[in-house]
Amino acid sequence: MDRKIFFIAGIIIAAIILASRMFYLQIIEEKYKVNADNNALLYMTKYPARGEIYDRKGRTLVGNKTTYDIMVTPYDLEPFDTLDFCRIFNLDTVAVKRKLKSYRENRRRVGHQTFTFIKQVSAQDYSHFAEKAYKFPGFFAISRTARVYPFNAGASLYGYINEADSAFLAKNPDYRRGDYVGITGLERSYEDVLKGKKGYNIMVRDVHNRVRSSFKNGEYDVEAIPGKDLTASIDGELQAYGEFIMRNKVGSIVAIEPATGEILAIVSAPGLSIEDLTNIRTNYSALAQDPYKPMFNRAVMSAYPPGSVFKAVNALIAQQNGAITPQTMYSCSRGFFYSGGKMGCHGHKSPLNLKESIMMSCNAYYANTFRAILRDPAHQPIANAFDHWKEQVMKFGFGVKLESDFPAELAGNLPSTKTYDKIHGKGRWNAFNILSLAIGQGEVGATPLQIANLAATIANKGYYIIPHLIKNPPDSARAAKYSEKHYVGIEQEHFAPVIEGMYLAVNAPQGAGGTSRRAYIPDITVCGKTGTAQNPHGKDHSVFMCFAPMDEPKIAVAVYLENAGAGGSWAAPVASLIVEKYLKGEVERKELEDYVAHSNLRQFVPIKRKR
Amino acid sequence: MQENKTRRVDLGLLLSYLLLIVFGWLNIYSAVYSEEHGFILDMSQRYGQQFIWIGLSILTAIFILYIIRPEIYSTLSPILYIIMAVLLFAVIFVGKEVNGSKSWFFIGSFGLQPAEFSKITTSLLLSYIMSQYGFTLTNKKMAATAAAVVLLPILLIIMEKETGSALVYLGLLFVFYMQGMSGWFIILGFSLAAIFSLTISFSPLTAIVCALAACSLLRLLIWKRGKWFISAVAVIVLIAYLPKLYATLPFLELFKPEVWALILFIPHTILWIVDIYKMREDRGSFYLILSLICAIAITFSINIIFNKVLQPHQRARIENLFGITEDLQGIGYNVHQSKIAIGSGGLTGKGFLNGTQTKYNFVPEQSTDFIFCTVGEEWGFVGSLLLLIVYIYLIVRIIVLASKNFDTFTKLYGYCVASIFLMHVVINMGMTMGLLPVIGIPLPFLSYGGSSMLSFTILLFIFIRLDMERQSKE
Question: Is the pTM of this model over 0.80?
Answer without folding.
Answer: no
